[in-house]
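Internal ticket #5521
Category: modeling
Description: The requester needs a full-assembly model to guide mutagenesis choices. All entity lines are attached below as received. Residue total reported by intake: 695.
Assigned to: D.W.
Attached entities:
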Amino acid sequence: MTDLLVALRKDLLLQWRGRAQIVAIFAFGAATLLLFSFAIGPDSVALREHAAGFLWLGLLLASTLSLAESFEREMEEQALEGLLLLPASARALYYGKAIANCAQLTLLGVALVPVMVVLYDAGTVRLLSLLGVILLGTAGLSAPGTLYAAMTAQTRARQTLLPLLLFPLVVPVLLAAVKATSLLILGDPMGQLRPWTSLLGAFAVVHWALGGLLFGRVVED
Amino acid sequence: MIAVAAAGLCRRYGRRWALTDVSFEVPEGALVMISGRNGSGKSTLLRVLATAIRADRGTAHVLGHDVRADREAVRERIALLGHRTHLYEPLTALENLALVGRFLGGDGRRTALLAALEEVGLADRADDAVQTFSAGMRQRLALARVLQQEARVVLLDEPYGHLDPPGFLLVDGVLRRLRGQGATVLMATHLIQRGRMLCDRGLVLEAGRLVYAGATAEMPEPAGADGAGFAEGA
Amino acid sequence: MAAASQHRVPQALVALGAVLLCIGSYWGLAKAPGEVFMGDVQRIMYVHVPTAWNAMLALTFAFVCAVSFLFSNAWKWDNRLEAAMEIGVVLSLLLCTQGAIWAKPTWGVWWDWDPRLTTTAVMVFAFGGILALRAFVDDPMKRAVWSAVACIVAFADVPIVYFSVKWWNSLHQAQSSPETVSKAFHWPLRINAFGILFLWTGLLALRARVAALRLRSEIAPPLPERPRAASDARASGGAS
C-alpha cells in the first residue's frame, strides 16, 4: 500500500512539473470542441442536443495525448525499470500512474465543461452528478489507457498505436458517458441516469482489475 | 560464501547471441572487473544478474537466490548502475533520491539525502531539476542513487563514463568504501589499468563468451575480431 | 518431406470444409423453401449464422491462446494466437458485410446498429489494432506478450461492448437483428457451420506454421546443449 502512495505521489509531482503541457492539452481539447461546432454548423438546437457527444469525443482525443505523455518520463531514462529493480511492486506503479492519469483527465473534463456551456449552450444544474459522470468516465479511460500507454511508449509509431488500440476498447465508456451527460444536460424525466453510471462503474471495475494483473507482464522483460 | 554464481547463461537479441554459455562464481566481498570490447556482452551480463532482463538459457544465483524464480529477493539485494540513469528528468536531484528512499522504506529526510548528494559532489545542485544537469552530473546522481540502496551486491556498468578526473577519484573512493563494507561489486569498465589497481578478480568477455576468469594480475587484454588488443584511454 | 505431410491434415480440413460449405450453401440458398415473411433475403442466414458462430469461436480460441502463452511462454501459442486473430478479424469482417447485405433490402440502410453486428464491428477494430501492434514491435518476445495481454483485455471487453450497445440502441429502435431460421431448416445451417469450422481450423494450422517459420528467421536458433566440462571457467578463491 505504501508503494502505491509513493508511486502516486511521484506521478502527481511529475504532472505538476509538466503542467505547461496539461494547459496545452486543454487548449487542444477546447479547439476540437470548436471544430465540432464548425462541422455541425451554427444550429444551436443540434449543437445543444449533441453537446455531450462533443465533450466526450474531445476528452477522448485529448486523453491520447495525456496518456502518452504520462510514460515519456518513465521511458526516457528507463526510470520505470529503475523503480522495478528497487524492488517496487509493478502493480503499485500501475495503480499510481492510473490514478494520476484519471485525476488529470477529470481535471481536463471539468475544464472543458465551461467551453461546452459556452459553445453549445449546454449546461446543467446537477453539477455534482456531472462531476461524478466525468470521474467514472475518465476512470474507464485511464485504466486501459495507462496499460496501453506503457506498451506503446516502447514501440515505434506510438502516436498512432495508442488511439488505435484504445478507441475500440472504450466504446462502452463513450456510449454510457455521453448518454449520462446528455441526460444531465437535456433532462432526465424517467430517471435513466442510474443504469448508465452503473455501466461506467462496471467497466471501470473490470479494467482496473485487469490492468493491475497484466501491467507487470507489459513492462518486464 | 558465493555472492554471484552463473551457469551457462545465454541471451539473444534477435538473430544474435549476446551471451553464450557464461559461467563463473564470485565470492562475497570480492571486487570484480568485467572487461571486453563494445558489444561483447558486459551490459547484458550485468542486466541479467540485476534481473532487468531474462536469460534465454542457463541459471544465475545472487546470494543464493535464483534470478529467474526469485526475482524480488534478488532485487532486494542488488543495485544496478546501468547505461541509462534511471532518473526522472523533471524532478530535482533531491526528489529523485527521496523517491528511492521512500520505496526502500525510509522517510526521505532532507539532511540524510543532502549528505548523500554531498558525497557525490552535487550538494549545491540539490534542488535543481535533473534535466539541467550535464552528463557527468547525471552520472554522479545515478551513483548516489545506487549507494542509497545499500545493496550487498553492486553492479556497475561503466561507472567512470562521462566523469571528469575528480569524478574518477570519487568512483575509486566509492569502490574502496564498498569493499570496506563487505559488499560484492561487479564493475564493467574499459579502464583496464585502473580496474587492475582496485579489483582483485577479473572476467573477460569476447563476443558473448567468457574467455578469462581469474586474478586481474594475469588478465589478458580483451581482443576484438582482428585479434589486436587496445590501448586504454585517460 | 516431413513438412509436406505436416500440411496434409490441415489441407484436408480446408478441402473438406470448402466442400461442406458448398453443399450447405447450395441447399440453403437454392433448394430450401423460402421463409414465409422475409422471403429470399432471409436465405443469407444460412451463411450468416454459421459465420457468426465461427467468428466468436475463433476469437475465443485466440483468447485461449493468449492465456496459454502467458502461462507457458511457449512460442506455439503465439503462432496460433496470430493466426486465430487474423481469422477472427476476417470472419468478423465477413459477418459485418453479410449484415449490410441483409440490412439494405430489409431496412433501406446499409447499417442498422444491431447490437451483435455493432459489437462485431468494434471487435474488428479491436483485434485489427492488435494485429497492427504486432507489425510495429520487432522483439518477438515483447510482441508475443503484448499481443496476448491486448487480446485478453479486448476479449474481456466483448460482453461489456455488447451490453452497452444493446442498451444504447434499444432506446431508439426495436431489435432489428435477423431472426434465426425455424427448426425445419437446421440442416443447411449445421452443414455450413461445420464447413466454415473445418475451413478455418485448417487455415489456422497452416497460418500458424507460417508464423512459426517467420519466427525462426527472426531469432537465432537455440544453442546446442553443451556438457558441463572442465572448460567452464571459474574465478576460484585465491590466486588461480
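Resolution: model delivered.
Comment from assignee: The mean pLDDT of chain A is 95.
Ticket closed.
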